Amino acid sequence: MNEDILGTALLDYQKGNYSEDITTYSSLNEEDVLPLPYMFRSFKEMPEIEQKALSMCSGTVLDVGCGTGSHGLYLQDKGVSVTGLDASKGAIDVSMLRGLKNAVHSNLEDYQGQQFQTILILMNGVGLAGTLNGLETFFTKLKSLLKEDGQILLDSSDIIYMFENDEDGGYWIPDNVNYYGEVSFSMEYKKQKSESFPWLYIDYNTLQRAASYNNLTCELVMEGEHYDYLARLTHMK
């Protein structure tokens, strides 16, 4: 079984063998498409939240879940020292083929590197925590890689809008769900389907509480057009 569905698809696109996109399936009973060209977008094609995050990067940067290296390549072209990190071997291969100088194939939890001034976690990379309970381990690892005066820039979305409203203005959320932003996904590409994996979407207020519990200060930088936002986290003084 192909364990690197994403990497396989990205490599196909990079090498000019683009014939289909990735199909995603989620526990929200939704089938969706991840368009491969979007993963190769330029700065001008990025959402405003991503553009804002890139403009705030300073010092040495760790791009967690770097994918094809689009964010890192933009920073690199600006003279920033950036390291791309991704668990997908294919994604790392693509980012290097595109010219990213420092790219590391590793899970975040296994990565042992220097400390960085900025840790960049875009495209809802906080999802790597998997669940709300997983945030403690996630934040502990990030803090170990963050300089004392450094910053974590991350975006996410409040997906409450995906649940049906009731007559009182509340939402119907299944009883078996610990937190409505905990979702499971699988990906399919060229008739190869991945195992299901957990992914977290987190509303800002919950993120702020979780950050504070883990001795991180959290501030809202900006909100997007559709329940999404950019946050900046720093070591609590």
Task: Outline the secondary-structure elements.
Blueprint: H1 5-14, E1 22-26, E2 31-34, H2 48-56, E3 61-64, H3 70-77, E4 82-86, H4 89-97, E5 103-105, E6 116-121, H5 135-144, E7 146-157, E8 182-189, E9 192-193, E10 197-200, H6 204-213, E11 216-223, E12 228-235
Helix pairs in contact: 1-4
In words, what does this structure look like?
It comes from marine sediment metagenome. Pfam families: Methyltransf_25. InterPro entries: Methyltransf_25 (IPR041698), SAM-dependent_MTases_sf (IPR029063). With 237 residues, this protein is α/β, with parallel strands linked by helices. It has a domain at 46-178 and 204-235: 3-Layer(aba) Sandwich (Rossmann fold). It has 6 helices and 12 strands. The chain has helices spanning 5-14, 48-56, 70-77, 89-97, 135-144, 204-213, and strands spanning 22-26, 31-34, 61-64, 82-86, 103-105, 116-121, 146-157, 182-189, 192-193, 197-200, 216-223, 228-235. It has a 7-stranded mixed β-sheet with strand order 5-4-3-6-7-12-11, sandwiched between helices. Helix 1 runs parallel beside helix 4 (89-97). The longest helix is centred in the N-terminal third of the chain and has 10 residues, at 5-14. The radius of gyration is 18 Å and the shape is globular.
